[in-house]
Specification:
Elements: E1 2-7, H1 13-22, E2 35-37, E3 43-48, H2 53-59, E4 64-68, H3 69-75, E5 80-84, E6 90-97, E7 112-115, H4 118-127, E8 133-136, E9 152-157, H5 161-165, E10 168-177, E11 179-183, H6 189-208, E12 211-219, H7 223-229, E13 237-240, E14 246-254, H8 258-267, E15 271-277
Bound molecules: 1-O-pyrophosphono-5-O-phosphono-alpha-D-ribofuranose and zinc ion.
């Protein structure tokens, strides 16, 4: 049995559960429960505050966890970062009242900065030779300047909406963060294997992101040209059609180049093009 800690509520909760579900691990709706079991994978989910996840994993209360890199870096507990998950992207930035003139990091010398991330901020200031007063506050950091508690803030920025609403302007970024899968350093062999299995599934889901499965019909003699249009992919599957002289081509195409490729394929005579979404790519 592998125990995974995920955020009980907040920006990572839904994406974490969705990732598990795409990996074929369904969890009974555990919103009210602290601990929930999966029916189809030897996994149980422990719902925690994101701030507590690194410690829970380092102590072995949970074997693995999904949490923002920002929390891992801030808390400094000894955990292994196994995999970056690509969601929950945000940055930790310094922001100042928007009317203030800003001429570089030296601005912060002697200033009071409110933040929930004092460790990351003090390392950032140290690296850059800035001496400022760091005020740790637990929440509502963004209102600190307007109520006179601080001159500036250091906080999570995602869309930037919170800063705008509070008349603040982002001036420096200290850390780019996203959700990561972390693991304890002393997992048993059985748990290591479950983790490897889970990771294998997660990677299959990730590979399929942004990929489309394309089927099209093409006259036989156009196949070499079609293969030239579709370089970089393993050789496409080619099946003969009942209709004399025609083949069906099946290929996986990245969404980004989907329309360009389709236009090129149409130009050489491709017909009946079907684009399907792709769930998993297993290697
Ligand atoms: C963060 C941060 C801001 C907001 C920024 O809080 O403290 O309030 O998100 O997001 P935006 O740029 O999209 O407006 P969050 O909701 O993550 O809660 P937490 O920091 O208490 O975990
Ligand atoms: Zn938090």
């Amino acid at each position: 049995m592998l125990r995974i800690a995920i955020q009980a509520k907040g920006r990572l909760n839904e994406d974490s559960l969705e990732l598990l579900s795409e990996a074929g691990v369904s969890i009974e709706n555990g919103k009210r429960k602290l601990l929930a079991r999966s029916g189809d994978f030897p996994l149980e989910v422990l719902y925690l505050r994101d701030d507590d996840i690194p410690q829970a994993v380092s102590m072995g209360v949970a074997d693995v966890g999904v949490v923002g890199l920002n929390e891992v870096e801030e808390k400094g507990f000894d955990v292994e970062t196994v995999h970056s998950l690509g969601f929950g992207k945000c940055r930790l930035s310094l922001a100042i009242p928007k009317a203030e003139a800003y001429d570089g990091l030296g601005y912060f010398n002697g200033k009071r900065i409110a933040t929930s991330y004092p460790a990351i901020l003090s390392r950032f200031f140290e690296r850059n030779g800035i001496e400022a007063e760091i005020h740790e506050i637990a929440g509502s950091v963004e209102i600190a300047p307007s109520v006179g508690m601080a001159d500036a803030i250091f906080d999570i920025v995602s869309s930037g909406g919170t800063l705008v609403t509070n008349g603040l302007r982002e001036v420096e970024t200290a850390l780019h963060s996203e959700a990561v899968l972390i693991a304890g350093r002393t997992l048993s062999e059985e748990k290591r294997q479950l983790l490897a299995q889970l990771l294998f599934r997660i990677e299959a889901v990730e590979r399929s992101r942004g990929m489309k499965y394309v089927l099209l019909n093409l006259p036989h003699e156009k196949i070499p040209e079609a293969i030239r249009i579709l370089p970089g992919m393993k050789s496409p599957t080619i099946l003969p059609l009942a209709q004399e002289g025609w083949s069906s081509i099946h290929v996986v195409i990245n969404e980004k180049e989907l329309w360009t490729k389709i236009e090129q394929l149409k130009a050489i005579g491709a017909e009946d093009i079907l684009v399907l979404s792709l769930e998993k790519m297993i290697r």
